[in-house]
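This entry is passed on directly below:
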Amino acid sequence: MTNEEEKLLNELKDAIVSCQEDEAKVKAQEILKAGIDPIFTLQTVMTESARIIGEKFDNGEYFLPHLVMAGDAMMAASAILEKAIPKESNIKKVVVIATVEADMHSVGKNIVGMMLKASGFEVHDLGVDVKSSEIIRRAQELNADFIALSSLLTTTMPYQREVIDELKAYGIRDRFKVVVGGGPVRKDWADKIGADGYGKDAIEAVKVFKQLAGME
């Protein structure tokens, strides 16, 4: 990678972290014009941006409005990059993704969703603060293959378990592969609640989805 390409990637990251949506869109276009791989950009810049934003939130430097504005900048840039990614039309696995009830965090979920789309999955993002019953209803309605659950607060992690427990209660647990993730979530928690997969970050999460889908 040339110094100029690295500079462009850093400028996109800085624009996202500083919540500058218009600047992020400009930098995304410049990255495509420079011939930088959009998938590589999504995997590196977006993941690093989310890490920095999360740290600023944890340190009290950023608050919810900052998360929303940074998320908007990230989504705007990602939409431009996604259009340049050739879609793998032979893959038809359907993913329903959501941040669980009482949790308003969206950045990590958004990155995973974008990277899954880039990998050929059909992704339906239900948003944040979504009740377990609504997640299940939409998964059934869309005939989904996967349910992806994000939780960024330890207090909302039990809702990941609730989705799995309700699937069992309805007798439809085997219909869906459930993948969990989020800042406080660890593999031992995923194992404890009976999830099918866990990703510590977006890159690992996509690998898990591909493995469960028989693509790797």
Observations:
- The radius of gyration is 17 Å.
